[in-house]
Write a structure and sequence with these properties.
Oligomer: single chain
CATH architecture of the largest domain: 2-Layer Sandwich
CATH topology of the largest domain: Endonuclease, Chain A
Strand order of the largest sheet: 1-7-6-5-2-3-4
Largest sheet: 7 strands, mixed
Number of helices: 12
Strand content: 5-15%
Helix content: 55-70%
Order of helices and strands: HHHHHEHEHHEHHEEEEHH
Structural class: alpha/beta
Radius of gyration: 25 Å
Distance between the termini: 49 Å
CATH class of the largest domain: Alpha Beta
CATH superfamily of the largest domain: Endonuclease Chain A
Amino acid sequence: MTAPERSRLARERLSRELRRLRTEAKMTGTATARATGMSQSKLSKIENGMLLPSVTDVERLVAELAAARETRLELVELARSLHAEAETRRVVLHRGAHRHQQTISRVEARAATSRFLQLNLVPSLLQSEAYLRTVLATMPAPEQEAAVAALRVRRSRMDDLAKQFVFVLTESALRWRLGTPELMAEQVEHLAAIQRRPNVRLGVVPWSAETNVVALHGFHIYDERVVTVSVLTGNATITDPLDVREYLALFGRLERAAVRGEELQGLLKKIAEDHRRLG
Protein backbone atom coordinates (compact mmCIF):
# COMPACT_ATOMS: atom_id res chain seq x y z
CA MET A 1 0.00 0.00 0.00
CA THR A 2 1.40 3.41 -0.98
CA ALA A 3 1.71 6.35 1.41
CA PRO A 4 -1.12 8.32 -0.27
CA GLU A 5 -3.42 5.28 0.06
CA ARG A 6 -2.61 4.90 3.76
CA SER A 7 -3.29 8.59 4.30
CA ARG A 8 -6.61 8.37 2.44
CA LEU A 9 -7.75 5.41 4.54
CA ALA A 10 -6.79 7.19 7.77
CA ARG A 11 -8.76 10.28 6.75
CA GLU A 12 -11.77 8.14 5.87
CA ARG A 13 -11.58 6.44 9.25
CA LEU A 14 -11.45 9.77 11.09
CA SER A 15 -14.49 11.16 9.27
CA ARG A 16 -16.35 7.89 9.67
CA GLU A 17 -15.71 7.75 13.43
CA LEU A 18 -16.79 11.37 13.95
CA ARG A 19 -20.00 10.72 12.03
CA ARG A 20 -20.61 7.56 14.08
CA LEU A 21 -20.16 9.43 17.36
CA ARG A 22 -22.68 12.08 16.34
CA THR A 23 -25.20 9.43 15.26
CA GLU A 24 -24.83 7.51 18.53
CA ALA A 25 -25.18 10.76 20.50
CA LYS A 26 -28.47 11.37 18.60
CA MET A 27 -27.44 14.92 17.73
CA THR A 28 -28.26 16.66 14.46
CA GLY A 29 -25.55 18.14 12.31
CA THR A 30 -26.89 21.63 12.97
CA ALA A 31 -26.91 21.18 16.74
CA THR A 32 -23.41 19.65 16.78
CA ALA A 33 -21.99 22.40 14.57
CA ARG A 34 -23.50 25.11 16.75
CA ALA A 35 -22.21 23.47 19.95
CA THR A 36 -18.66 23.20 18.62
CA GLY A 37 -18.48 26.65 17.02
CA MET A 38 -18.39 25.68 13.38
CA SER A 39 -20.78 25.98 10.45
CA GLN A 40 -23.04 23.10 9.51
CA SER A 41 -21.46 22.97 6.04
CA LYS A 42 -17.98 22.60 7.58
CA LEU A 43 -19.16 19.74 9.79
CA SER A 44 -20.74 18.06 6.76
CA LYS A 45 -17.46 18.29 4.84
CA ILE A 46 -15.57 16.83 7.80
CA GLU A 47 -17.98 13.91 8.16
CA ASN A 48 -17.89 13.19 4.43
CA GLY A 49 -14.11 13.25 4.21
CA MET A 50 -13.98 16.41 2.13
CA LEU A 51 -12.16 18.46 4.79
CA LEU A 52 -9.44 17.41 7.23
CA PRO A 53 -10.49 18.82 10.62
CA SER A 54 -7.96 20.62 12.77
CA VAL A 55 -6.83 19.00 16.00
CA THR A 56 -8.89 21.61 17.86
CA ASP A 57 -11.97 20.72 15.79
CA VAL A 58 -11.60 17.06 16.73
CA GLU A 59 -11.04 17.87 20.42
CA ARG A 60 -14.27 19.90 20.50
CA LEU A 61 -16.25 17.27 18.62
CA VAL A 62 -15.22 14.28 20.73
CA ALA A 63 -15.87 16.29 23.91
CA GLU A 64 -19.32 17.47 22.77
CA LEU A 65 -20.28 14.01 21.56
CA ALA A 66 -19.23 12.42 24.88
CA ALA A 67 -16.80 9.98 23.32
CA ALA A 68 -15.08 7.50 25.60
CA ARG A 69 -11.66 8.62 26.83
CA GLU A 70 -9.83 6.02 24.75
CA THR A 71 -11.71 7.08 21.63
CA ARG A 72 -11.03 10.77 22.32
CA LEU A 73 -7.29 10.18 22.61
CA GLU A 74 -7.21 7.94 19.54
CA LEU A 75 -9.07 10.37 17.24
CA VAL A 76 -7.18 13.44 18.42
CA GLU A 77 -3.87 11.65 17.83
CA LEU A 78 -5.11 10.49 14.39
CA ALA A 79 -5.92 14.10 13.45
CA ARG A 80 -2.53 15.27 14.74
CA SER A 81 -0.65 12.63 12.74
CA LEU A 82 -2.62 13.39 9.57
CA HIS A 83 -1.75 17.07 9.81
CA ALA A 84 1.91 16.27 10.45
CA GLU A 85 1.93 13.97 7.42
CA ALA A 86 0.19 16.58 5.26
CA GLU A 87 2.89 19.10 6.12
CA THR A 88 5.68 16.59 5.45
CA ARG A 89 4.16 15.56 2.13
CA ARG A 90 3.85 19.14 0.94
CA VAL A 91 5.31 19.53 -2.55
CA VAL A 92 7.22 22.78 -3.08
CA LEU A 93 7.06 24.23 -6.60
CA HIS A 94 9.92 26.39 -7.85
CA ARG A 95 9.51 28.50 -10.96
CA GLY A 96 12.27 29.65 -13.30
CA ALA A 97 15.26 27.71 -14.62
CA HIS A 98 17.79 29.87 -12.78
CA ARG A 99 16.04 29.48 -9.42
CA HIS A 100 15.71 25.73 -10.00
CA GLN A 101 19.42 25.36 -10.82
CA GLN A 102 20.33 27.26 -7.64
CA THR A 103 17.99 25.16 -5.49
CA ILE A 104 19.30 21.91 -6.93
CA SER A 105 22.88 23.12 -6.61
CA ARG A 106 22.44 23.51 -2.85
CA VAL A 107 20.91 20.03 -2.55
CA GLU A 108 23.61 18.44 -4.71
CA ALA A 109 26.35 20.10 -2.67
CA ARG A 110 25.27 18.03 0.35
CA ALA A 111 24.50 14.80 -1.50
CA ALA A 112 26.94 11.90 -1.63
CA THR A 113 24.93 10.09 -4.33
CA SER A 114 22.75 11.78 -6.96
CA ARG A 115 20.46 9.71 -9.18
CA PHE A 116 18.82 10.92 -12.38
CA LEU A 117 16.09 9.37 -14.52
CA GLN A 118 15.12 10.96 -17.83
CA LEU A 119 12.60 9.65 -20.34
CA ASN A 120 12.81 12.12 -23.23
CA LEU A 121 15.66 14.51 -22.44
CA VAL A 122 19.36 14.26 -21.64
CA PRO A 123 19.98 15.30 -17.99
CA SER A 124 21.39 18.81 -17.71
CA LEU A 125 24.64 17.59 -16.10
CA LEU A 126 25.30 15.49 -19.23
CA GLN A 127 24.24 17.98 -21.89
CA SER A 128 26.72 19.24 -24.46
CA GLU A 129 26.96 23.03 -24.79
CA ALA A 130 24.99 23.02 -28.08
CA TYR A 131 22.28 20.74 -26.66
CA LEU A 132 22.01 22.88 -23.52
CA ARG A 133 21.61 26.08 -25.54
CA THR A 134 18.83 24.41 -27.54
CA VAL A 135 17.00 23.39 -24.35
CA LEU A 136 17.22 26.95 -23.00
CA ALA A 137 16.55 28.69 -26.33
CA THR A 138 13.00 29.80 -25.47
CA MET A 139 14.10 31.66 -22.31
CA PRO A 140 14.95 35.38 -22.20
CA ALA A 141 18.69 35.90 -22.66
CA PRO A 142 19.39 37.12 -19.08
CA GLU A 143 17.62 34.11 -17.53
CA GLN A 144 19.36 31.78 -19.99
CA GLU A 145 22.81 33.05 -19.00
CA ALA A 146 21.98 32.85 -15.30
CA ALA A 147 20.81 29.23 -15.73
CA VAL A 148 24.00 28.33 -17.62
CA ALA A 149 26.17 29.90 -14.90
CA ALA A 150 24.32 28.01 -12.14
CA LEU A 151 24.63 24.78 -14.11
CA ARG A 152 28.39 25.24 -14.46
CA VAL A 153 28.65 25.35 -10.67
CA ARG A 154 26.68 22.10 -10.47
CA ARG A 155 28.86 20.45 -13.10
CA SER A 156 32.04 21.40 -11.27
CA ARG A 157 30.96 19.12 -8.43
CA MET A 158 31.29 16.12 -10.73
CA ASP A 159 35.07 16.57 -10.35
CA ASP A 160 34.72 15.56 -6.71
CA LEU A 161 35.38 11.81 -6.82
CA ALA A 162 33.84 11.41 -3.36
CA LYS A 163 30.45 12.08 -4.97
CA GLN A 164 28.63 9.48 -7.08
CA PHE A 165 26.38 10.33 -10.03
CA VAL A 166 24.04 7.65 -11.37
CA PHE A 167 22.13 8.28 -14.60
CA VAL A 168 19.41 6.15 -16.17
CA LEU A 169 18.05 7.27 -19.54
CA THR A 170 15.64 5.66 -21.92
CA GLU A 171 16.77 5.15 -25.50
CA SER A 172 13.98 7.51 -26.54
CA ALA A 173 15.69 10.32 -24.58
CA LEU A 174 18.65 9.99 -26.94
CA ARG A 175 16.54 9.75 -30.05
CA TRP A 176 14.20 12.67 -29.22
CA ARG A 177 15.48 15.26 -31.68
CA LEU A 178 15.94 18.66 -30.10
CA GLY A 179 18.19 19.90 -32.88
CA THR A 180 20.02 18.94 -36.03
CA PRO A 181 21.19 15.38 -36.66
CA GLU A 182 24.79 16.47 -36.05
CA LEU A 183 23.91 18.17 -32.76
CA MET A 184 22.18 14.99 -31.57
CA ALA A 185 25.05 12.76 -32.71
CA GLU A 186 27.56 14.95 -30.88
CA GLN A 187 25.40 14.85 -27.74
CA VAL A 188 25.37 11.04 -27.81
CA GLU A 189 29.14 10.96 -28.29
CA HIS A 190 29.48 13.41 -25.39
CA LEU A 191 27.68 10.85 -23.22
CA ALA A 192 30.05 8.11 -24.36
CA ALA A 193 32.99 10.20 -23.18
CA ILE A 194 31.56 11.46 -19.90
CA GLN A 195 30.42 8.02 -18.73
CA ARG A 196 34.06 6.97 -18.48
CA ARG A 197 34.46 9.15 -15.38
CA PRO A 198 35.09 6.94 -12.33
CA ASN A 199 32.27 8.52 -10.29
CA VAL A 200 29.68 8.42 -13.08
CA ARG A 201 27.47 5.40 -13.71
CA LEU A 202 25.39 5.66 -16.88
CA GLY A 203 22.77 3.18 -18.05
CA VAL A 204 20.39 3.35 -20.98
CA VAL A 205 17.15 1.36 -21.12
CA PRO A 206 16.92 0.19 -24.76
CA TRP A 207 13.57 0.30 -26.50
CA SER A 208 13.74 -3.50 -26.84
CA ALA A 209 13.90 -4.05 -23.05
CA GLU A 210 10.78 -5.48 -21.42
CA THR A 211 10.65 -3.39 -18.26
CA ASN A 212 7.13 -4.12 -16.95
CA VAL A 213 7.44 -0.73 -15.24
CA VAL A 214 5.37 2.42 -15.71
CA ALA A 215 7.40 5.61 -15.27
CA LEU A 216 5.17 8.66 -15.73
CA HIS A 217 7.96 11.24 -15.64
CA GLY A 218 11.65 11.77 -15.06
CA PHE A 219 13.04 12.70 -11.66
CA HIS A 220 16.21 13.27 -9.63
CA ILE A 221 16.98 11.70 -6.23
CA TYR A 222 19.58 13.12 -3.86
CA ASP A 223 20.81 10.50 -1.38
CA GLU A 224 17.62 9.20 0.21
CA ARG A 225 16.33 12.63 1.24
CA VAL A 226 15.05 14.70 -1.67
CA VAL A 227 13.33 14.09 -5.01
CA THR A 228 12.89 16.77 -7.65
CA VAL A 229 10.48 16.53 -10.58
CA SER A 230 10.32 18.93 -13.52
CA VAL A 231 6.81 19.90 -14.63
CA LEU A 232 5.63 22.24 -17.36
CA THR A 233 5.45 25.38 -15.23
CA GLY A 234 8.18 24.73 -12.67
CA ASN A 235 10.05 22.15 -10.62
CA ALA A 236 8.62 20.27 -7.65
CA THR A 237 10.64 19.27 -4.58
CA ILE A 238 9.49 16.21 -2.58
CA THR A 239 10.94 15.34 0.83
CA ASP A 240 8.48 12.89 2.41
CA PRO A 241 10.52 9.74 3.29
CA LEU A 242 7.80 7.37 2.08
CA ASP A 243 7.58 9.13 -1.27
CA VAL A 244 11.36 9.18 -1.62
CA ARG A 245 11.51 5.43 -0.99
CA GLU A 246 8.95 4.82 -3.73
CA TYR A 247 11.05 6.82 -6.20
CA LEU A 248 14.18 4.91 -5.13
CA ALA A 249 12.42 1.60 -5.74
CA LEU A 250 11.27 2.69 -9.21
CA PHE A 251 14.76 3.93 -10.06
CA GLY A 252 16.24 0.61 -8.99
CA ARG A 253 13.90 -1.38 -11.23
CA LEU A 254 14.73 0.77 -14.25
CA GLU A 255 18.45 0.73 -13.51
CA ARG A 256 18.38 -3.07 -13.58
CA ALA A 257 16.81 -2.92 -17.07
CA ALA A 258 19.53 -0.58 -18.40
CA VAL A 259 22.58 -1.64 -20.42
CA ARG A 260 26.12 -0.59 -19.49
CA GLY A 261 29.71 -1.24 -20.45
CA GLU A 262 30.46 -2.54 -23.93
CA GLU A 263 26.78 -3.10 -24.64
CA LEU A 264 26.11 0.56 -23.84
CA GLN A 265 29.02 1.73 -25.98
CA GLY A 266 27.61 -0.25 -28.90
CA LEU A 267 24.14 1.20 -28.40
CA LEU A 268 25.45 4.77 -28.19
CA LYS A 269 27.50 4.29 -31.35
CA LYS A 270 24.44 2.99 -33.22
CA ILE A 271 22.23 5.88 -32.05
CA ALA A 272 24.84 8.46 -33.12
CA GLU A 273 25.13 6.79 -36.53
CA ASP A 274 21.34 6.77 -36.91
CA HIS A 275 21.21 10.50 -36.21
CA ARG A 276 23.91 11.23 -38.79
CA ARG A 277 22.06 9.21 -41.42
CA LEU A 278 19.19 11.69 -41.05
CA GLY A 279 21.54 14.48 -42.10
